[in-house]
Design brief:
Blueprint lengths: L2 E5 L3 H11 L3 E6 L3 E5 L4 E5 L23 E4 L3 H10 L9 E2 L3 E7 L5 E7 L2
Parallel strand pairs: 1-4, 5-8
Antiparallel strand pairs: 2-3, 3-4, 6-7, 7-8
Length: about 120
């Protein structure tokens, strides 16, 4: 299982989102710098500002959250999940839409990283 790393603004806030809203489990936390979460088939490494992964590159560019690469979370009932996340104040980049393989929508974690919710065609 390959891990995926998200650069985040606030590790405890991000842990709360992924654990409470998306059902991940906290495996390890290294203070405010980093945490390792486990989903069904993925390990997610959250790296905050003090983490080594967040340090500037030789050219001065600093890693930051956001972008378009994303974690995909497969769900059984996308409409129920969207309703619950919106009630919790989660930001969405678009509305749910049907693609050839299923229904999808992009929400954001507390740092602005995209998370795709995907319900496969039955």
């Amino acid at each position: 299982m390959a891990p995926m790393r998200y650069i985040v603004n606030d590790v405890p806030e991000s842990i709360e989102f992924f654990v409470d809203q998306l059902g991940f489990k906290l495996e390890q936390q290294f203070g405010p710098a980093m945490a390792i979460l486990k989903g069904d088939d993925i390990k997610l490494w959250l790296a905050g500002p003090p983490a080594s992964a967040s340090q500037p590159m030789p050219d001065g560019t600093s890693p930051s959250p956001g972008g378009w690469n994303r974690l995909v979370v497969i769900v059984d009932d996308i409409e129920e999940m969207v309703t619950r996340l919106k009630a919790a104040g989660t930001t969405f980049r678009n509305e749910s839409f049907q693609g050839p393989g299923g229904t999808q929508v992009l929400c954001e974690d507390p740092s602005g990283n995209p998370v795709e919710l995907f319900q496969p065609v039955a």
